[in-house]
Automatic annotation (TrEMBL):
InterPro entries: ClpP/crotonase-like_dom_sf (IPR029045), ECH_dom (IPR045004), HIBYL-CoA-H (IPR032259). The keyword Cytoplasm does not apply. Gene3D superfamilies: 2-enoyl-CoA Hydratase, Chain A, domain 1 (3.90.226.10). Its EC number is 3.1.2.4. This is 3-hydroxyisobutyryl-CoA hydrolase. It catalyses: 3-hydroxy-2-methylpropanoyl-CoA + H2O = 3-hydroxy-2-methylpropanoate + CoA + H(+). Keywords: Hydrolase. Residues 18-356 form the Enoyl-CoA hydratase/isomerase domain. It comes from Shewanella electrodiphila. The keyword Hydrolase applies. It holds the Pfam family ECH_2. Signal peptide: none annotated.
Length: 371
Protein backbone atom coordinates (compact mmCIF):
# COMPACT_ATOMS: atom_id res chain seq x y z
CA UNK A 1 0.00 0.00 0.00
CA UNK A 2 1.35 3.42 -0.91
CA UNK A 3 1.85 5.86 1.89
CA UNK A 4 -0.53 8.82 1.68
CA UNK A 5 2.32 11.11 2.73
CA UNK A 6 6.04 10.41 2.30
CA UNK A 7 8.83 11.83 4.45
CA UNK A 8 12.42 11.97 3.20
CA UNK A 9 15.59 13.77 4.15
CA UNK A 10 17.97 15.16 1.54
CA UNK A 11 21.63 15.48 2.34
CA UNK A 12 23.54 18.64 1.45
CA UNK A 13 27.24 19.44 1.08
CA UNK A 14 27.06 21.49 4.30
CA UNK A 15 26.26 18.34 6.27
CA UNK A 16 22.77 19.61 7.11
CA UNK A 17 19.67 17.82 5.82
CA UNK A 18 16.44 19.08 4.28
CA UNK A 19 13.17 17.49 5.42
CA UNK A 20 10.84 16.81 2.48
CA UNK A 21 7.12 16.13 2.90
CA UNK A 22 5.36 14.79 -0.21
CA UNK A 23 1.57 14.51 -0.24
CA UNK A 24 1.11 11.27 -2.11
CA UNK A 25 -2.46 10.58 -3.26
CA UNK A 26 -2.08 11.66 -6.85
CA UNK A 27 -5.44 10.24 -8.00
CA UNK A 28 -7.23 12.35 -5.35
CA UNK A 29 -5.10 15.42 -6.19
CA UNK A 30 -3.29 14.93 -2.85
CA UNK A 31 -6.37 15.85 -0.79
CA UNK A 32 -5.69 15.74 2.95
CA UNK A 33 -7.18 13.07 5.20
CA UNK A 34 -6.86 12.85 8.98
CA UNK A 35 -4.07 10.24 8.87
CA UNK A 36 -1.99 12.56 6.68
CA UNK A 37 -2.60 15.52 8.98
CA UNK A 38 -1.54 13.48 12.02
CA UNK A 39 1.57 12.06 10.31
CA UNK A 40 2.67 15.50 9.09
CA UNK A 41 2.16 17.09 12.50
CA UNK A 42 4.23 14.39 14.19
CA UNK A 43 7.06 14.59 11.63
CA UNK A 44 7.17 18.41 11.59
CA UNK A 45 7.37 18.45 15.40
CA UNK A 46 10.28 16.00 15.26
CA UNK A 47 12.11 18.02 12.56
CA UNK A 48 11.50 21.24 14.47
CA UNK A 49 13.67 19.91 17.30
CA UNK A 50 16.26 18.18 15.10
CA UNK A 51 19.40 20.35 14.74
CA UNK A 52 20.40 18.40 11.65
CA UNK A 53 17.34 19.63 9.69
CA UNK A 54 17.97 23.09 8.17
CA UNK A 55 14.49 23.54 6.71
CA UNK A 56 11.41 21.75 5.40
CA UNK A 57 9.90 21.41 1.90
CA UNK A 58 6.22 20.64 1.24
CA UNK A 59 5.45 19.14 -2.15
CA UNK A 60 2.70 17.15 -3.90
CA UNK A 61 3.05 13.97 -5.96
CA UNK A 62 2.40 14.19 -9.69
CA UNK A 63 2.16 17.28 -11.83
CA UNK A 64 -1.53 18.17 -11.39
CA UNK A 65 -1.76 19.39 -7.81
CA UNK A 66 0.07 20.33 -4.67
CA UNK A 67 -3.13 19.70 -2.69
CA UNK A 68 -6.75 20.13 -3.79
CA UNK A 69 -8.15 20.45 -0.25
CA UNK A 70 -9.41 18.17 2.49
CA UNK A 71 -10.92 14.73 1.96
CA UNK A 72 -14.25 15.46 3.64
CA UNK A 73 -16.09 12.21 2.87
CA UNK A 74 -15.60 10.73 6.36
CA UNK A 75 -17.01 13.91 7.93
CA UNK A 76 -19.97 13.78 5.51
CA UNK A 77 -20.86 10.16 6.33
CA UNK A 78 -20.58 10.76 10.10
CA UNK A 79 -22.71 13.92 9.88
CA UNK A 80 -25.39 12.18 7.78
CA UNK A 81 -25.54 9.33 10.31
CA UNK A 82 -25.86 11.79 13.21
CA UNK A 83 -27.99 14.73 12.02
CA UNK A 84 -27.90 18.00 13.99
CA UNK A 85 -25.05 16.66 16.11
CA UNK A 86 -21.43 17.72 16.38
CA UNK A 87 -19.54 14.56 15.39
CA UNK A 88 -16.10 13.47 16.57
CA UNK A 89 -15.08 13.11 12.91
CA UNK A 90 -15.78 16.78 12.14
CA UNK A 91 -14.24 18.04 15.38
CA UNK A 92 -11.11 15.88 15.06
CA UNK A 93 -10.44 16.64 11.42
CA UNK A 94 -10.87 20.40 11.57
CA UNK A 95 -9.14 20.88 14.93
CA UNK A 96 -6.11 18.78 13.92
CA UNK A 97 -5.95 20.36 10.44
CA UNK A 98 -5.96 23.85 11.97
CA UNK A 99 -3.30 22.84 14.52
CA UNK A 100 -1.10 21.65 11.64
CA UNK A 101 -1.65 24.92 9.75
CA UNK A 102 -0.85 26.91 12.90
CA UNK A 103 2.33 24.85 13.45
CA UNK A 104 3.50 25.76 9.93
CA UNK A 105 2.77 29.47 10.47
CA UNK A 106 4.77 29.40 13.73
CA UNK A 107 7.65 27.23 12.44
CA UNK A 108 11.00 28.84 13.17
CA UNK A 109 12.86 27.05 10.39
CA UNK A 110 12.09 27.96 6.77
CA UNK A 111 9.19 26.10 5.16
CA UNK A 112 9.37 25.99 1.35
CA UNK A 113 6.05 25.13 -0.33
CA UNK A 114 6.19 24.05 -3.98
CA UNK A 115 2.76 25.38 -5.02
CA UNK A 116 2.62 23.85 -8.50
CA UNK A 117 -0.72 22.91 -10.08
CA UNK A 118 -3.93 22.97 -8.05
CA UNK A 119 -3.74 24.52 -4.58
CA UNK A 120 -7.22 24.74 -3.09
CA UNK A 121 -8.91 24.89 0.30
CA UNK A 122 -6.85 22.85 2.76
CA UNK A 123 -3.93 22.97 0.33
CA UNK A 124 -3.95 26.75 0.57
CA UNK A 125 -4.09 26.40 4.35
CA UNK A 126 -0.77 24.53 4.19
CA UNK A 127 0.73 26.92 1.66
CA UNK A 128 -0.23 30.03 3.63
CA UNK A 129 1.81 28.66 6.56
CA UNK A 130 5.01 28.45 4.50
CA UNK A 131 7.70 31.11 4.69
CA UNK A 132 8.77 30.57 1.05
CA UNK A 133 5.74 29.99 -1.18
CA UNK A 134 6.73 29.15 -4.75
CA UNK A 135 4.25 29.53 -7.60
CA UNK A 136 4.61 28.22 -11.16
CA UNK A 137 2.96 28.90 -14.50
CA UNK A 138 0.63 25.97 -13.68
CA UNK A 139 -0.50 27.22 -10.25
CA UNK A 140 -4.27 27.43 -9.86
CA UNK A 141 -5.22 28.63 -6.40
CA UNK A 142 -8.72 29.00 -4.97
CA UNK A 143 -10.93 28.83 -1.89
CA UNK A 144 -13.99 27.02 -3.34
CA UNK A 145 -15.78 26.29 -0.04
CA UNK A 146 -18.94 28.22 -1.02
CA UNK A 147 -19.67 25.38 -3.45
CA UNK A 148 -19.97 22.86 -0.56
CA UNK A 149 -21.73 25.00 2.03
CA UNK A 150 -18.60 25.98 3.94
CA UNK A 151 -16.59 29.23 3.89
CA UNK A 152 -12.83 29.87 3.39
CA UNK A 153 -11.41 28.32 6.57
CA UNK A 154 -7.83 27.03 7.25
CA UNK A 155 -6.80 30.53 8.32
CA UNK A 156 -8.74 32.38 5.62
CA UNK A 157 -10.22 34.60 8.34
CA UNK A 158 -6.69 35.87 8.86
CA UNK A 159 -5.10 36.01 5.41
CA UNK A 160 -8.11 36.93 3.23
CA UNK A 161 -8.79 39.98 5.38
CA UNK A 162 -5.22 41.19 4.86
CA UNK A 163 -5.44 41.20 1.06
CA UNK A 164 -5.77 44.45 -0.94
CA UNK A 165 -9.19 46.13 -0.87
CA UNK A 166 -12.13 43.72 -1.10
CA UNK A 167 -10.20 40.97 -2.90
CA UNK A 168 -10.51 38.54 0.04
CA UNK A 169 -14.31 38.83 0.07
CA UNK A 170 -14.36 38.37 -3.72
CA UNK A 171 -12.25 35.19 -3.50
CA UNK A 172 -14.52 33.76 -0.80
CA UNK A 173 -17.79 34.48 -2.60
CA UNK A 174 -16.71 33.46 -6.10
CA UNK A 175 -14.12 30.66 -5.66
CA UNK A 176 -12.12 32.54 -8.32
CA UNK A 177 -9.09 30.56 -9.57
CA UNK A 178 -5.97 32.67 -9.09
CA UNK A 179 -3.02 32.29 -11.43
CA UNK A 180 0.55 32.89 -10.23
CA UNK A 181 0.41 36.64 -10.97
CA UNK A 182 -2.81 36.95 -8.93
CA UNK A 183 -1.36 34.93 -6.05
CA UNK A 184 1.76 37.10 -5.94
CA UNK A 185 -0.42 40.23 -5.98
CA UNK A 186 -2.36 39.10 -2.87
CA UNK A 187 0.77 37.62 -1.19
CA UNK A 188 -0.44 34.01 -1.26
CA UNK A 189 2.89 33.29 -2.96
CA UNK A 190 6.19 35.15 -2.75
CA UNK A 191 8.35 33.46 -5.41
CA UNK A 192 7.80 32.35 -9.00
CA UNK A 193 9.54 29.72 -11.13
CA UNK A 194 8.88 27.41 -14.06
CA UNK A 195 7.35 24.06 -13.09
CA UNK A 196 10.38 22.30 -14.60
CA UNK A 197 12.74 24.28 -12.36
CA UNK A 198 11.97 21.90 -9.47
CA UNK A 199 14.84 19.46 -10.04
CA UNK A 200 17.42 22.22 -10.61
CA UNK A 201 16.14 23.85 -7.41
CA UNK A 202 16.71 20.68 -5.37
CA UNK A 203 20.17 20.33 -6.93
CA UNK A 204 20.99 23.92 -5.98
CA UNK A 205 19.66 23.45 -2.44
CA UNK A 206 22.17 20.63 -1.91
CA UNK A 207 25.07 23.01 -2.58
CA UNK A 208 24.16 25.82 -0.17
CA UNK A 209 26.01 26.18 3.14
CA UNK A 210 23.12 25.67 5.56
CA UNK A 211 23.73 26.29 9.26
CA UNK A 212 22.17 25.98 12.74
CA UNK A 213 20.95 29.57 12.47
CA UNK A 214 17.28 29.58 11.34
CA UNK A 215 17.34 33.31 10.48
CA UNK A 216 20.42 32.83 8.31
CA UNK A 217 18.82 29.83 6.58
CA UNK A 218 15.77 31.98 5.81
CA UNK A 219 18.06 34.52 4.13
CA UNK A 220 20.01 31.87 2.23
CA UNK A 221 16.83 30.27 0.91
CA UNK A 222 15.41 33.64 -0.18
CA UNK A 223 18.65 34.47 -1.99
CA UNK A 224 18.64 31.13 -3.79
CA UNK A 225 14.98 31.42 -4.85
CA UNK A 226 15.46 35.02 -6.02
CA UNK A 227 18.51 34.00 -8.05
CA UNK A 228 16.70 31.07 -9.68
CA UNK A 229 13.61 33.19 -10.31
CA UNK A 230 15.74 35.73 -12.19
CA UNK A 231 17.21 33.07 -14.45
CA UNK A 232 13.90 31.19 -14.97
CA UNK A 233 12.30 31.47 -18.40
CA UNK A 234 8.69 31.09 -17.18
CA UNK A 235 6.21 33.80 -18.14
CA UNK A 236 4.26 35.09 -15.16
CA UNK A 237 1.43 36.61 -17.23
CA UNK A 238 -1.21 39.12 -16.20
CA UNK A 239 -3.16 39.37 -12.94
CA UNK A 240 -6.87 40.07 -13.46
CA UNK A 241 -7.17 40.72 -9.70
CA UNK A 242 -4.57 43.48 -9.95
CA UNK A 243 -5.81 44.87 -13.27
CA UNK A 244 -9.45 45.00 -12.20
CA UNK A 245 -9.14 45.68 -8.47
CA UNK A 246 -11.14 48.97 -8.57
CA UNK A 247 -14.05 47.20 -10.29
CA UNK A 248 -13.85 44.22 -7.89
CA UNK A 249 -13.83 46.56 -4.88
CA UNK A 250 -16.89 48.35 -6.23
CA UNK A 251 -18.69 45.05 -6.91
CA UNK A 252 -17.99 43.91 -3.32
CA UNK A 253 -18.97 47.19 -1.61
CA UNK A 254 -22.12 47.28 0.52
CA UNK A 255 -24.14 44.99 2.75
CA UNK A 256 -24.91 41.43 1.68
CA UNK A 257 -28.19 42.25 -0.15
CA UNK A 258 -26.46 45.03 -2.09
CA UNK A 259 -23.50 42.87 -3.11
CA UNK A 260 -25.85 40.02 -4.07
CA UNK A 261 -27.80 42.42 -6.28
CA UNK A 262 -24.59 43.80 -7.84
CA UNK A 263 -23.32 40.31 -8.70
CA UNK A 264 -26.76 39.22 -9.99
CA UNK A 265 -27.11 42.22 -12.28
CA UNK A 266 -23.48 42.25 -13.43
CA UNK A 267 -23.02 42.28 -17.20
CA UNK A 268 -19.50 41.53 -18.38
CA UNK A 269 -17.60 40.20 -21.37
CA UNK A 270 -14.79 38.88 -19.14
CA UNK A 271 -14.89 35.08 -19.01
CA UNK A 272 -13.16 34.86 -15.63
CA UNK A 273 -15.68 37.27 -14.13
CA UNK A 274 -18.62 35.40 -15.69
CA UNK A 275 -17.37 32.18 -14.05
CA UNK A 276 -16.96 33.99 -10.74
CA UNK A 277 -20.49 35.39 -11.00
CA UNK A 278 -21.98 31.97 -11.82
CA UNK A 279 -20.18 30.25 -8.92
CA UNK A 280 -21.19 32.92 -6.40
CA UNK A 281 -24.87 32.74 -7.38
CA UNK A 282 -24.92 28.92 -7.38
CA UNK A 283 -23.19 28.72 -3.98
CA UNK A 284 -24.82 28.19 -0.60
CA UNK A 285 -26.83 31.25 0.55
CA UNK A 286 -25.83 30.38 4.14
CA UNK A 287 -22.18 30.44 3.05
CA UNK A 288 -22.73 33.98 1.76
CA UNK A 289 -23.61 35.09 5.27
CA UNK A 290 -20.67 33.24 6.81
CA UNK A 291 -18.25 34.77 4.29
CA UNK A 292 -19.59 38.24 5.09
CA UNK A 293 -19.32 37.58 8.83
CA UNK A 294 -15.73 36.46 8.24
CA UNK A 295 -14.92 39.59 6.21
CA UNK A 296 -16.43 41.75 8.97
CA UNK A 297 -13.85 40.37 11.43
CA UNK A 298 -11.40 42.63 9.62
CA UNK A 299 -7.86 42.43 10.98
CA UNK A 300 -8.81 42.43 14.67
CA UNK A 301 -8.16 38.74 15.36
CA UNK A 302 -4.74 37.15 15.82
CA UNK A 303 -3.97 34.03 13.80
CA UNK A 304 -4.74 31.81 16.82
CA UNK A 305 -8.05 33.60 17.45
CA UNK A 306 -8.93 33.22 13.76
CA UNK A 307 -8.46 29.44 13.91
CA UNK A 308 -10.54 29.23 17.11
CA UNK A 309 -13.37 31.21 15.49
CA UNK A 310 -13.20 29.01 12.38
CA UNK A 311 -13.34 25.72 14.27
CA UNK A 312 -16.69 26.60 15.85
CA UNK A 313 -18.16 27.71 12.52
CA UNK A 314 -16.80 24.68 10.63
CA UNK A 315 -18.23 22.04 12.98
CA UNK A 316 -21.54 23.93 13.04
CA UNK A 317 -21.65 23.86 9.22
CA UNK A 318 -21.40 20.07 9.37
CA UNK A 319 -24.20 19.63 11.93
CA UNK A 320 -26.62 22.50 11.09
CA UNK A 321 -25.52 24.11 7.82
CA UNK A 322 -25.35 23.30 4.12
CA UNK A 323 -22.11 21.28 4.25
CA UNK A 324 -23.65 17.79 3.92
CA UNK A 325 -25.85 18.79 1.00
CA UNK A 326 -22.96 20.56 -0.72
CA UNK A 327 -20.67 17.55 -0.36
CA UNK A 328 -23.44 15.20 -1.52
CA UNK A 329 -24.08 17.22 -4.68
CA UNK A 330 -20.43 17.77 -5.58
CA UNK A 331 -18.56 14.68 -4.33
CA UNK A 332 -20.97 11.85 -3.42
CA UNK A 333 -23.85 11.78 -5.94
CA UNK A 334 -22.06 14.30 -8.19
CA UNK A 335 -25.36 15.62 -9.58
CA UNK A 336 -24.22 19.22 -8.98
CA UNK A 337 -27.80 20.09 -7.98
CA UNK A 338 -27.55 21.05 -4.29
CA UNK A 339 -30.84 21.72 -2.50
CA UNK A 340 -29.62 24.36 -0.06
CA UNK A 341 -31.45 25.03 3.23
CA UNK A 342 -32.44 28.42 1.81
CA UNK A 343 -33.04 28.91 -1.89
CA UNK A 344 -31.97 32.57 -1.92
CA UNK A 345 -29.85 34.88 0.22
CA UNK A 346 -32.95 36.96 1.02
CA UNK A 347 -34.58 33.86 2.59
CA UNK A 348 -31.78 33.24 5.11
CA UNK A 349 -32.92 33.86 8.69
CA UNK A 350 -30.89 35.65 11.36
CA UNK A 351 -31.49 32.65 13.63
CA UNK A 352 -29.84 30.23 11.17
CA UNK A 353 -26.79 32.48 10.84
CA UNK A 354 -26.49 33.01 14.62
CA UNK A 355 -26.66 29.23 15.15
CA UNK A 356 -23.69 28.73 12.81
CA UNK A 357 -21.66 31.58 14.32
CA UNK A 358 -22.16 30.53 17.97
CA UNK A 359 -19.23 28.47 19.24
CA UNK A 360 -20.16 25.07 20.72
CA UNK A 361 -17.50 25.50 23.43
CA UNK A 362 -16.66 27.81 26.30
CA UNK A 363 -13.16 29.27 26.00
CA UNK A 364 -11.66 26.89 28.60
CA UNK A 365 -13.10 23.83 26.82
CA UNK A 366 -12.13 24.86 23.28
CA UNK A 367 -10.15 22.13 21.42
CA UNK A 368 -7.68 24.82 20.25
CA UNK A 369 -7.33 26.59 23.61
CA UNK A 370 -3.61 25.78 23.75
CA UNK A 371 -2.52 27.33 20.45
Amino acid sequence: MTQDVIFQTLGTLSGKSIGVVTLNIEKALNALNLDMVQAMTKQLQAWKDDNNIAFVVLDGAGDKAFCAGGDVRAIYHASIANPNTMTAEACDFFSQEYQLDYLLHQYEKPVLVWGDGIVMGGGLGLMAGGSHRVLTERSRIAMPEITIGLYPDVGGSYFLNRMPGKIGLFLGLTAYNMNAADALFVNVGNHFMASDDKEPLFDAIAEVSWSDDAALNHQQLSLLLNKMQTSSNAEIGQSPLSDFQPQIDQLMTGEIEEVHHQITSLETELDWLKRAQKTALAGSPLSWFLIFAQANLGTTKTLAESFKWELGVSVNCCSHGDFCEGVRALLIDKDRQPQWNFSHASDVTAQAVTQLLTSPWDADMHPLKDI
